[in-house]
Amino acid sequence: MLYVGLDVHASRSSLCILNNGGQVVNRREVRGSWPKVMEAMKSIDQPFSLCYEASCGYGTLYDQIRPLATHVAVAHPGKLRLIYGGKRKNDRIDAEKLAKLLILEMVPSVHVPRVDVRNWRSLITWRQRLVDKRVAAKNQIRACLRELGIESPAGKSLWTRRSIAWMKSLDLGAAAGLKVRMSLEELETLNQKIALVEKELFKISDKHPGVALLRTIPGVGIRTAEAFCAWVDNITRFRRSRQLGAYFGLVPCQDASAQKNRLGHITRDGPAVMRKLLTEASWMAVRRCPEIKVFFERVMGGKPERKKIALVAVSHRLVRIMGAMLRSGEAYNPGRRTELLSKGS
Question: Which CATH number fits domain 2-103: 3.40.630.30, 3.30.420.40, 3.40.50.720, 3.10.350.10?
Fold first, then answer.
């Protein structure tokens, strides 16, 4: 059995091949894109295991290498301290270290979902980027109106058809008028794009039983439910529901030594889009679910400065509840919530 470390890039990659004893058998520099890397993989005449670092397109690369290798490990880039903590770092050294981690069975692996799940995740992320652009366009329009001292309706009422027609009829001058017209055109285009993306997302979500199940939680809408199901993928890969909090970056950083235990801000690991959606869902859950509201107020302890801490705690609790529901297949029931969490803890 050979152990291959691959430091892969778009136009140049490095290969380091080790034997069972950890000795270097061969090193190769592959100049070219991924097809060239595949040719180098096919030229290995012995069974081999391979390790490479997760980066853009790691799932597609995994699908191409998996039929050729006995085992493929995809390493978490944020946990490769052996590589990033060294005094010397280049592609050749990185490839050798990846191969050594593979031999020692110490690769901090990431889950590689199926291609349909990866496409689902990319659509969710793409929708969120479009939504962020739409928010920026709306803020630009409000800023232009504010600069000219024009009073505009608050909230969503500014984006109705009547209000948009009113803004188009305003005489704002050359500069401000041009900015508002262009922002309104951009807003209309973004609305159409978001509608197209959401149409595809609805097709996927309607076929997934977990999305409908999670929507029984007060405050959890279809966007939050589908994002949770997409990134969790298979709930059985988490041994405990509390591991979901760490997966989505909702647990505090910890620095413990001897008698000292310092807890800092949350780690923010995992997809940022999921934490954003969880924050929105947490606010809605606090408003709509008496049980979650009691928990929120208990964590806040009557101190307004602890509101953000309490909201993160609610997000963490929602994640654990959603994980327990996917595991059990039961709809949300406040009376059963404590029993479900204890089973999945």
Answer: 3.30.420.40
